[in-house]
Structure formats: C-alpha cells, structure tokens
Amino acid sequence: MSFFNFVRHVGLPESFTFELTDLYEKKNFPKVIYCIHALSHLLARRGLAERIGNLVGHLQFSDDQLQQTQKGLKDSGVAMPNFGNVGKELAKEINEEPEEEPETEDERRDRLLMENEDSIVAAQAAARAFLVRKAQATQRGRIQFAERYVPGIQARARGVLFRRQMERERSERADMRDWVVVLQARARGAILRREWASHLRGIDASEDYVIKTQAQARGVLQRRKYLRIKAAMRSYTVSVVKLQSLVRARIAQQSHKEVTKNFMQPVITSAIVAVQALARGILLRRKISTRFAVLDQVVPSIVLLQAQARGVLIRRRVGSQLAKLDDVSDVVVRIQTAVRTFLVRKRLLALIRGLRNATPGVIALQATARAALAKRRFMAKRNAFREVKIVTSVGGLQAFARAAITRNRHREQTKRLEFVQPDVVGIQAVARGVLARMEYIPWRDHIRRSHPVATMLQALLRGATQRRRFRARIEHYRSNLDKVIQIQSLFRAKETREQYRQLTVGTNVTVGTIKNFVHLLDDSESDFQEEIKVERLRQSVVKRIRENQALESHVDDLDVKIALVVQNVKSFEELLKARRRYGTDSAALHAARASILAAHGDPFAGPSTLDHSAKRKHELYQQLFYLLQTRGEYIARLFTRIKGDDGGEKTRKTAERVVLTLFGYGHDRREEYLLLKLFQTAIRDEILTAGSIQEVTNAHPMFITIAVKYVRPKQTVYVREALQAVINELKDGKDISLESDPVAIYRARIDVEEMRSGAPSPKPKDVTFREALQDPDTRGEYIRHLQLLQWWTEAFVTALTQSTQRMPYGIRHMARETLVALRDRFPDAPEEVYTGCIARLLFYRYINPAIMTPETFDVVSQTLDTPTRKNLNQISRMLEQITLGCEFGDENPCFVPVNDYVRKAAKQWSSWLLEVANVQDAESQYHAHEFLDATAQPKSIWISPNEVYTMHSLLSQYLDHLRDDGLRIILTDLDGVPHIGDDELNDARDAAIELPLTNRFADVKDPNADLKALWVQAKRAVLAILRVQPAKDLVESLMQPVTEEHEQTWDGILTEMTREQKHQRRMPSTTHVDSAYRLEDIRSMTFREVKAHAIFFLLELEKRGQISRIDGYQGILNAIAGDVRSKNRRRIQRQHEKESMEEALTDLAGRKKWFEEQITSYHNYVETAMSTMQRGKGKKRFIMPFTKQYFHTRELQKAGKTPQFGSYKYSAQHFYDKGILLSIDQYSPRQFDKIDIVLSSNKVGIFTVEVFNNALGITNRVAHADVKMEDLLVAQFENRASYPLFNGMAKFNLNLLLWQINKKFYV
C-alpha cells in the first residue's frame, strides 16, 4: 500500500496504476512494468530519479521465450502496452509538454552520417580509387618481379601437360580392345599369306607338266598356222601380183597429180600483189589478155619442158619410193612378226586358260591329234612316193626379170634427171622472171597514168557499197523492229535490275541512284502519315497506361480501406462467410492457420490481420515475383548457380516447381510468352558458356526438366496424332519380329525345333555372332528382320517428318533458339552438329519417350505386350543412330548391314530438324510488344509461403551472381528471409495462397520518340529536295540557291500529289500530339522553307551523332535506300505495330473500365457495408430518464433535428477520465466539467463531433467537425496514437475514439 500511496503522492495518473491482483496473481504483469516505467518518467520530470532507459537491443531473447510469452499473453487476453510512447502518454495525462527524447547513440550516429553523406561518399570514392591504383601498381610489380620465373613455370606446365598426355595415351593403350583388333588383323594376314604360299607351292610343283603342255600346244598351233598360211599363199598368188600392180599404178598416179599441182601453182611476187590492190578490176582483165597472148607464143616450149619435168619427177619419185620400200622391208617384216607373235600369245593364253579347266580332255585330245598327225604324214609320204610331178615356174621367173629391168631403167632415168636438175631450175627461173617483167611494166605505167581516175572510181565504189550496206541494214532493222524493241526492253530491265542490285547491296548510295528509284517512294506520303498515326497511337497507349496505373493505385488504396473497415467491424458474419466458402472444418482450419501466421507477423496471414510492415512485405513479394516472371535472366542465372554449386535435390525440385507455378505452366498467352523467353535466355547462356558443342550435347541443364513438364500436355496430343497410326499398325501386325541379333535368332530357332520334336537339338547353343550367321536358316531370317526393321524405321521417320506443322510452337521455338545460339557461338561448325544439339531436346526428351512407352501418352489404349515393346526398342535404336548421324560400328555388328540406310536417313532427319527449327520468333507468334505487361493483366499465382521463402532464400544466397540493382533493392527492402519456425508454423505456411503480381519498375515511355521523328522529317524533306534540285551529291543539292523555277516545280509536285491523294489531304498539324513529335506537314510550306527545315533536321541529327557532313550526309541517303529496299517489310512491320497499338488501346480501355467498375463497386460496397452496420443496430436503446442524454434527445426531437443514426452527448470530463479526450487547447482538465462533446451521424460513415462550452450558464458551440470513418481507419493503419480535430485544437486517443464510435453507431 505504501507504493500506491507514493504513486498518488507524486501525482501519477490513475490510468497508469495497476491492481494488486495484476501483481500478485499475475493477471496483467505488463501493466505493472508499464506503471514502473511511467513512474520513472514522472520522477525524472520532478528531478527525483533517473528515467528507465530504452532496453531495445540490449537484451536478447530466444525464439522459444518470445513464443511462450506471446502465447501466455494471448491465453490471458492481455494486450501489450506501448512502452515506446510512455513519456508522451504521461505528458498528455498530466497536461504538460512532452519531454524531448534524449538522442541515442544510434540516432546521433545516423544524424551525423546523413549530414556528412556527400563528404563520406567523396572520401569513399577517393579511397577506392587509391586502393585500385595501389592494387594495379602492386600487380604490375608482381608481374615484373615474376617475369623471370614465367618461362620456368611455363616449362613445368608443359611438362605436366605432356606427362598427363602420356598418361592418357598409356591408359588408352592399356585398353586391350585396339590391341586385339590389330592382333586379329595380323592373324588374318598371316593365315592368308600361308594359304597363298601353299597355293604357289602347288603351282611350282606342276610347273614342268604345264611347260611341256604349253610347248606341245604351241607346236600344234604353229604347225596349223603354217599350213594355213602356206595354203593361202598358194591360192592367192595371182591376186597378190594384181594387187601389187594396182598399188604401183596408184602411187604413180598420186605422184603425177602432185607434180601437176606443183607446175600449176602461180608464183606471185609481192610487187604484183600491191599492184593488184590498187586497181583489181582493170588490171585483172588486161593481165588475162596479156597472159593468153604470151602463152600462145610459148606453148610449144612450155609443153615440151613440162613433159620433160614430169618425166624427171615421176622417175625420181618412183625411184625414191622403191628405195624406201627396199629399206623398210625388214622393218615391215619385223612388225608383222611382232603382231603375229602377239596374236599367237593372246590365243595361247586363252587356250591355256581353257586347258587348265580341261586338262584330262586336252591330254586325250593331244593323243588323238598325235595319232591323226602321224597317220596324215604317213599318208602324205606314201602319196608323194606314188606320184611323179614336174613343177614349172617360168611365169614367176619372167615376172622377176621384168621387175629387175624396170628398176634398172628407173635408176638410169633418175640419174639423168639429177644430172640436168640445175640447168632445168635455171631455165625455169629465167622464164618466170621474163614473164613477170612483161606483166609488171605495162601495169605500172597504166596505173601511173590512171591514178586520179582510179581514185575517183574507188570513191564511187566505196560510196555505192556503203549505201548498199546501209539500205540492207535499214531493211533488216525494219523487218525485225519487234525483236529490236524486245531486246531494248530486256536490256533496260537488265540495267535496272543491276542498278537495283547495287542499291540493295551497297551502303554508299549516290544521289543519282536515289533519284532513279525515287518513284518507288511515290506513296511515301501515306507511309509517313502511317508512321505519324503509329506514333500517335504509341503516345495514346503511354497516356492510357499512366491513367490505368493511377487507377490501379486508387484501387489498391480502396483495398486497404475496405480491409480496414472489415477489420474494424469484424463480427460473427465473417465466420459464417468462411463456413460457406470453405466448409465447417476447413473454415476452422483456415482460421487457425491465419491466426498462427498472424501471431508470427507473417505477411501472408490474410487481410483481417492487416499490419503496415506486413502489408509492405506483401507488396514487396508481389513485386519480387513479378520481376522474376518478366525478367527471365534472373531465373536462368539462378539455375546456372544451383547446378554449378550442386544444390540438393530438394532445392532443385522446389525451384522447378516454383518456376512452373510462376508461369502458370504456360497456359496463358502472356505467361507462355514469358516462359519461352526464359527458355531462350537459359539456352543462350548455356551455349555461350560451353567450351565445345560436345559439352552442349552432353549437358543436362535445369531448364530442360521444366521444358519437358511444360510441353507434356501438348506433347500427348502431338505424339498421338503423329505416331498412333504407325504404332497401332505395328502392334496389330501378326508375327512381326524385328530382332536383329543373329545369336538370339539362332537360339530361338533351336528352342522352336526342340519344342516341335520333343528332343534336344544336336546343334550347340552357345555360338558367336559369326558362327550364328553361318547357319543358312538363321542368316535368311536375320536378313528378313533387317529388311523389316528398315521398313518400319522408314515408316516412323515418314510419320514424324510429315507432322512438322502439327508440332507445338513451344518445342519448335526452343529448337529455333538452340540453332540460333549455336550458329552465333560456333559459326564454323557443320549443320549436322547443330542438328545433334537440337535432337538432344527434340528426340531424346520429346519423341523417344513416346515411342518407348506409348501407353503413358495415350497413344495406345492398353499396355503393350513384350514382342511389340522389343520391336519399338529396336526402332528406337535405329532412330537414335539416325539422330546421331553416324553409322553403326564394330560394337554393333548386327546393325552394320543397314548403314547405307542410316546414312541416307540421317540426311533426311537432319533436314527435318532444321525445318522444325524454322519458325518465327516468339514476339511475332504472340504479337508481343513493349506494352504487353501494361496491357495484359498479370494473373495471380497460387503459391505457398514456404515456396516464397525458399525462393527468397535462393535469391539472397546467389544475389551477387544475379547482378541487378532492381532485384537487390527489393531484397534489401524485405530485410532478410523470415524465420523458419516450428512444425506448426511450417504446416501453416504449406497451404497455398493467392499472390497477385505488381510491377514496381514500370516504365512505358519511349525514349527514342524524338529521334524517330527527326529521322522521319529529315528523310521526307531530303526526298522533296532531290525531286526538285537533283545534283551530284546531297551537299551540292542543299547549297544550290532556290529560284522561282524551283518553286514552280515544287508547286507542280504538290498539285499532282493533291490530285492523286485527295482523300489523304489534311490541314497543317497544330495539335499537341503532333507538336510533341514535331511532324509538321510540309505541304503547306514553300520549297525554300522545306529546304530550311531539311538543313535544320540534318544538323539536329548530326548533333546527336547519327549522321556526319564529312561523308556528305551519306547516312540519310543510306536510310532512304534502306526504305526503298525494305519498303514492303516496313509496311508490314508498321501495320503490325499499328495493330498491336490498337489492340493495346483496346485492352487498356477494358482495364480502365474494369478499374472504374472496381472503384465504383468498392465505393458502393463501403457505403452499403457501413450503412448496413449503422442501420442494423436492432431495437431502440433505453435512455435513463432525467439524464444528460435524455434531455439532449428531447431537445433534438423538439427542434426536429434528430440525426438519422443517432446523437450522443458526453461531458469532456467523462471522455477525459475514459482516456478518449487527451487535451483541448485553451482549456485545462479542471475546466472539462463545463464542456460537452456531442457525437452524431446523419450520413453513412460520416460523424459530426461538436464541442459546447457551458460556462456561466450559457451554452456556446466552440468547435465542430465532420470525421470520416475511412480517415480514422487510415490513421489507425499508420499506427498514430492520437487524432487531432478542429485544426489541432483538440486531441483524442485514436483507438478509444474508434471504440466509442463502434460502440454507439455500429454492431
């Protein structure tokens, strides 16, 4: 009791004291401590003692202690006082100014740091620079110091590498496989050599017999041939003689003709040729007449001379020919002998080959032949002895004599001609000279006399010839005029194509080229207007997105307010709603789970346990998962780090599950697009970090598993459509066996044979591959199986290659990105290597599982039998080898015969894989654009808090490797991963919750809008200048002065454009949108103004570094040429952009309408809820007669001003004693008994607070104000202890004021 007396003595307010039961029975022990704290503050104010300091951070408690304390407070229903505001609360109670809180050491440190932030940052920058320079200098010193040791280290490194290489070679040599192969090869070689040597020994042993046989055969053949030749010579003697005479006659005739040609050739001198060139016509006639006259005079002598010359030449030629024949007779004989020998050898070799095959027959034939020959000789000799015959050869002797006489005569004639040859040659030369001079001198004199006439005649002849040729050409041109026109058109087309090819290929396009092709941009006015429309649409989209963001922020605020309203008036109705939604048991579980999460401050506890920090964390998690969803590089890098650190299987599976949950398994267009972008980033990162293509092929990244799960629903439909027919045909086929192992076939045949006979087979069962093939039946069946296997494999390949168009886009997109990344990383690799990497995903993970287990993909309705599964296994092996693109080796000898088919099918399969990868990008497929995230509402994800915290932990662990400031900001604001807690908390966090996604870093402004506008206007003005003032280059066109003729040309161009495009004519742009983009209409300008604008825009582009005057503004010409090249593509792209913008505007309009409806529904809900709560108070309350409230109500009824929802009157002293009223300016607590406070409500959610002063018996209204329930709830959400009214004149305890209002106006 002495303590209570002391407390009352020092003036501690009663609201801070505690009851004895609170201390002895521990009913409210926190209030005892709160009283001691308040007493210390009061004594410190009086200067009697020191104040108890703030113990935050000085004491450490375990989680178990905190949980037990929290549980005890919860069980006892005691609320924990706010110890931080005890000084302020005490000052309010005793009506004194609150003391200034002494600045703590942490606050002082933070204040000093904030005041000196700039100098600290500068000092840190200088320190970092000094440390970097110092580290670089140290590094350079170390490098220079270690330079002498580098060669030694390199030598040692080379030694280590060489030793490792030698160890690898030794390990490879230790493998007995290659050694066995070499040994087998050598053994085969030794066996073959041994067999060959045995064969040669057999041939050597029979050599003598063969030689004798050959000799005898040659003798027989030579004798037969001799007899045939002899008989032929006897029968053809007369013919040979006639042939020789004919040959000699033919030779003589040819010699005579050659001599005649030699005598008939005219000898023409160079002088005569020159004379003939001057006057060919006249001289030719005179020459002919003169020659005839001369010839008539010398005919007898010439004829005699020619006869003698012919005789001499003929005799000489005949003699030389006979001499040559005599000289080469031996050679001809030898040639004939060699030919006969060759033919005999050839026939002999053929005969020997035949004799080898029929040696016994030859021996018998030889015996028969010898006998026949002996008999024939005997008969010939006997007949010769019997017959007496006289042979005469007089005719032959005469022929030989005649020939000898003829040859002697020929020799004599030849000698005579050779003797007189010099004289004959001299006579001929003199005769030729006389004849030539006789012809030359008259012609020379005539030409000299007739030179002018010849010149005129030549001129006339040339003129006539030229006119004749010209007329012929004109007639030919007129007759072929159509062909000429066609050729000209073809030439012009070829020239135009060549110029256009230069335009499309070259980069330095000239002004002349632009001028020639400027007609291709005749409709560029409409193109520019389309670009203006696109820019307008883009800006409209930006504005609409900003409006939607503002509306979304408003909706979020309304969400908070509604949650506050619901929290403030939570009643039994909420439990009934939960029962109707979840059921009786689940509602209880849900409530228990929410209470557990709320007790630990979990941000996912639910809206009913709203807290400012928890709300903030909840928003941060929404932003975090939105960032992970839209920025695939974070998850791709996270996968790389998890795989590199060999994370646990549980962590990996959790990450995969969270990613699939985050993207909704790709069932929505936006989520599927973002998931494919994640796969694209992961594929490129994996290939970029790979050292070789083999690493890419053999790798197993984490995204592959996610991709397989993503495509599994679509995979079932695809493989069922592509493979169901061929698999069912294989399954339903009778006695189809694709077993390709001869050993297995051999054993199966033995088993069948034993089953049929009932006795064991005598054949061995344990045989090798080659031994099994020696069996004829096994070999035949093996060949049939291979043929069937090849046929069925071809059927599967055909079914797959024809199903490309039905293949889901997701798997084709991953194949495309794999191919693009491989070509960028390994540009020199062949296409077959690229397809091997594509097959890693497409065949092994997508197609092969459906072939091996078709029942799991609904391809077949029932489980397959064992033979069919074996057949599918064989087909899968074939397809796998075709996918690898290589033939079967010695490790699979049973498949070696089908290597030709594998090689052919591999090319077809490789082409198909490239066709699968030939698909458009994801942006074109899903019509994605930069406003996709702003127009497509992100769907909420259902995820458990434990999964959220696991992902948070992984991101925090690998934050340094993710390299992004936005992610770091969010993780820093989250302030660490929440505590795991006990099993009960983990069970509560395992339930899935709905997590909406929001974008914290939304930025939809187009930063290149101004630059695009500059390019558009510059190109437009330059084209106008080139139409009017074309020149050698653009600078020259810009520098030319503008004349009146140029203005008239420009007016003509505008008139023609206006006539052609009347429907597109519009007034000059004056709207804010066009002025923002500065796309003025040049049609309203003069040519001088157009030129000035062109120069201005070119200078602006030059300032921004886009073009340069050094190259004559070549950049703008290249840009125009680019428009010419890609005109159609630009139109299509602009049309797609326009459609995308229009679609975006439609979506944004829908979202805006949805937000407005949400705002309207929220306002209606709030008003309806508050009206329901205010109207549902039930029966009218009883008012004690003759009380202040009784008289107040009667006065209001008399005045007819009774509020709709009631009015309540209290004294300020009553509110002050209850703790509701804290203070009123200009009034002390002693005067509160003279002041009344009235609370009334005439509108839903709006409460009127009035203060009346009753001093001196006169009632005056001091102040009044309208208070909204929403404002009170927001202030409570912001953890404000007091709430000022009347412009700060009065202060109320916020929580107690809300309690009073709820008590009087709400259920």
Q: Can you offer a commentary on this structure?
A:
By secondary structure, the chain is mostly helical. Helix content is 73%, strand content 4%. The strands form 3 sheets. Strands 3-5-6-7 form a 4-stranded antiparallel beta sheet. It has a 3-stranded antiparallel beta sheet with strand order 4-9-8. A two-stranded antiparallel ribbon has the order 1-2. A hairpin with a 2-residue loop joins β5 and β6. It starts with a helix and ends with a helix. Mean pLDDT is 76; it is low at 569-586 and 1063-1080.
User: What structural class should be given to the helix and strand makeup?
Assistant: mainly alpha
Number of helices: 51
Radius of gyration: 59 Å
Shape: elongated
Give the low-confidence spans. 569-586, 1063-1080
Summed over residues and divided by their number, the pLDDT gives a mean of 76
Helix fraction, binned, reads over 70%
Strand portion, in percent?
under 5%
Q: Sheet with the most strands?
A: 4 strands, antiparallel
Distance between the termini: 41 Å
The count of β-strands is 9
Numbering strands along the chain, what is their spatial order in the largest sheet? 3-5-6-7
InterPro entries: CH_dom_sf, IQ_motif_EF-hand-BS, RasGAP_C, RasGAP_dom, Rho_GTPase_activation_prot
Protein name: Ras-GAP domain-containing protein
GO cellular component, one term: mitotic actomyosin contractile ring
Domain Ras-GAP: 670-884
